[in-house]
Write a structure and sequence with these properties.
Order of helices and strands: HEEEEEHEEEE
Strand order of the largest sheet: 1-2-3-4-5-9-8-7-6
Strand content: over 45%
Shape: globular
Number of helices: 2
Helix content: 10-25%
Number of domains: 1
Structural class: alpha+beta
Length: 155
């Protein structure tokens, strides 16, 4: 299936902003023990399904007309639990990603100081194929990090 990359990118930003970052309603688990969030708009549907909390792993998938067209895998963890609690890290991430999404994008080259920590995101590639890393520093120490990769799905 061919998908308009500009529409796809806009939908991904909108879906990400409405789900985890926007504290969207949880959906029923599609796998035992998973935390699931969903968003829909027109022909597009988004599912973010992850396991864990302070240390976690997950996958986001975008469907167009019921067919999977894009996905991203991610794995994150608290590196210094004595310096940041999972809830604090989540708050910093949500504030920072909200600022990035207001710019109409979801890939790296972004730094944001919330006052509670500095969030940094770097990536290579574009919506078709990318890899990246995000992290939080406090007092010059990296206290949290996440690695991600993804892109278009082709049959």
């Amino acid at each position: 299936m061919t998908v308009d990359l500009e529409q796809l990118g806009k939908f991904i930003v909108k879906a990400k902003a409405a789900t985890y970052v926007g504290s969207g309603a949880k959906s029923p688990s599609c796998r035992p023990g998973s935390h699931d969030l969903q968003s829909r708009d027109g022909d597009f549907a988004y599912l973010d399904s992850y396991f864990g909390g302070a240390d976690f792993i997950g996958q986001e998938v975008v469907y167009c007309k019921g067919e999977p067209v894009w996905a991203m895998n991610y794995c994150g963890r608290i590196l210094k639990p004595e310096m940041v609690a999972a809830a604090e890290a989540g708050k910093i991430i949500k504030q920072s990603l909200s600022a990035m999404y207001r710019e109409g994008r979801f890939l790296g080259g972004f730094e944001y100081d919330t006052g509670d920590g500095v969030y940094t995101d770097t990536s290579e590639g574009d919506v078709t194929a990318f890899t990246g890393k995000e992290w939080i520093t406090r007092e010059g120490v990296r206290v949290y990090e996440l690695v991600y990769h993804g892109g278009l799905i082709k049959e």
